[in-house]
From TrEMBL:
PANTHER family: PHOSPHOGLYCERATE KINASE, PHOSPHOGLYCERATE KINASE 1, CHLOROPLASTIC-RELATED. It comes from the Bacteria. ATP binds at residues 221, 319, 350, 379-382. One of its GO terms (biological process) is gluconeogenesis. The lineage of its organism: Bacteria, Pseudomonadati, Bacteroidota, Bacteroidia, Bacteroidales. Keywords: ATP-binding, Cytoplasm, Glycolysis, Kinase, Nucleotide-binding, Transferase. Pathway: Carbohydrate degradation; glycolysis; pyruvate from D-glyceraldehyde 3-phosphate: step 2/5. GO terms for molecular function: ADP binding; ATP binding; phosphoglycerate kinase activity. It holds the Pfam family PGK. (2R)-3-phosphoglycerate binds at residues 34, 114, 168. GO terms for cellular component: cytosol. It is found in: Cytoplasm. This is Phosphoglycerate kinase. It is an enzyme of class 2 (transferase).
Length: 423
């Protein structure tokens, strides 16, 4: 069943969205892309004459209640965006009465699903090494089914529209689908669009294909990096992982972020790139500081900002952005590309002093898109960059999913899609 074939009149639909939006220290939304992304599906249900129960996670509270990650903070913003009253259920697993009271044309927002460990289905407070772990995991899987069944009981039909979590087999993204028959579960409009965009990149790669991977850790991206090395012509690696690569060659990186247990992985990536004939582009220089306040994303008074080689960062300084030479190299590598994938910034772009690296990448992608490239931007931070620099309408497609997009590009079947399609 597709969402456009389905008539929601008189029906309550429970919709898994991805409202994991970034908030500032006052709980205000700093980028509402994900909320806007879900609106077409939610509005279609309401326009048909249905009612909508919205469920999402926020952050990683690891199965415990953490009010800093409460979806109550965004209820008003959702109400404003949706244009109908939005009630709030302060406990997602005890919302039966609120769901029952819901009238057609209204919406109900459930509290953060991840306040319950059952959402992710991982045992809490026990190490994987513990001999009792398997037993605990089995028990958790059983209670995950019950949790999903509770969520399903609120509604007549289920819509999966959270591409950002489609790669996870969580209670709300996959398990819940078991409690609806094939005619009452479907992908939302955003999910359909996302799946098509991935197909556009993979089934029809126009070359040269350039991928830009940023972010702080090599470890979280290693699977996709290795996969991309079999597909792309050029791979730009930037952001915090720059310093793990520099360190792997005995560089001096000061206080820069580094994964010391991944130095061999970095060298392995370089080897694989060479073997596959992929041009690997790493930052040669960086902007570094001895006074970034990560809490406020500002530079402390009296702190120094310097430009130095990425493998010669002085003690007490940390690399926080790509330097001018790196920016030139990145832009040059993107020039002339016909397919572009960007996931992860080149620096701490949240601080206005360190946006130059990410901006150079964004501008180069916009230029290449103007010249006929298909550009796919994915992952919260890259999307935030594109929005911050006002480039959203100058790229081909902005994906709401980071990990899901990467896994789909790796060719993996996404549980959130499989659960609907019965694969």
């Amino acid at each position: 069943m597709t969402i456009n074939e389905f008539n929601f009149a008189g029906k309550k639909a429970i919709v898994r969205v991805d409202f994991n939006v970034p908030l500032d220290e006052n709980g205000k939304i700093t980028d509402d892309t994900r909320i806007r992304g879900a609106l077409p599906t939610l509005k279609k249900i309401l326009a048909d004459g249905g009612a909508v129960i919205i469920m999402s996670h926020m952050g990683k509270p690891k199965g415990k209640v953490d009010m800093k990650k409460s979806l109550g903070q965004i209820r008003e913003a959702v109400e404003k965006a949706l244009g109908v009253p939005v009630a709030f259920a302060p406990d997602c697993a005890k919302a039966a009465d609120a769901a029952k009271a819901l009238k057609m044309g209204e919406a109900l927002l459930l509290e953060n699903l991840r306040f319950y460990p059952e959402e992710e289905g991982k045992p809490v407070g026990i190490d994987k090494e513990d001999p009792k772990y398997d037993e605990a995991k089995k028990a958790m899987k059983a209670s995950q089914k019950e949790f999903a069944k509770t969520l399903a009981s609120y509604a007549d039909c289920y819509v999966m529209d959270a591409f950002g979590t489609a790669h996870r087999k969580h209670a709300s993204t996959a398990v819940i689908a078991d409690y609806f028959d094939a005619n009452n579960k479907m992908l939302g409009l955003l999910m359909e669009k996302e799946v098509q965009a991935v197909d556009a990149v993979l089934s029809n790669i126009k070359r040269p294909f350039v991928a830009i991977m940023g972010g702080s850790k090599v470890s979280s991206k290693i699977g996709i990096i290795e996969n991309l090395l079999g597909k792309v012509d050029k791979l730009i690696l930037c952001g915090g992982m720059t310093y793990t690569f520099a360190k792997a060659h005995n560089g001096e990186i000061g206080d820069s972020i580094v994964e010391l247990d991944k130095l061999d992985v970095a060298l392995g990536v370089e080897e694989l790139a060479k073997k596959n004939g992929v041009e690997l582009v790493l930052g040669s220089d960086c902007t570094a500081t001895n006074g970034l306040d990560f809490g406020t994303m500002t530079v402390k008074e009296g702190a120094e900002i310097i430009t130095c080689p990425a493998n010669k960062v002085p003690a007490g300084f940390e690399g926080v952005d790509a330097g001018p030479e790196s920016q030139k190299a990145f832009a040059e590598a993107i020039k002339g590309a016909k397919t572009i994938l960007w996931n992860g910034p080149a620096g701490v772009f949240e601080c206005d002093a360190f946006t130059a690296g990410s901006r150079a990448i964004g501008d180069a992608i916009a230029e290449a898109t103007k010249n006929g490239a298909f550009s796919l931007i994915g992952g919260g931070d890259s999307v935030a960059c594109v929005n911050k620099f006002g480039l959203a309408d100058q790229v081909s497609y902005i994906s709401t999913g980071g990990g899901a997009l990467l896994e789909a590009i790796e060719g993996k079947v996404l549980p959130g899609v499989a659960a609907i399609k019965g694969e």
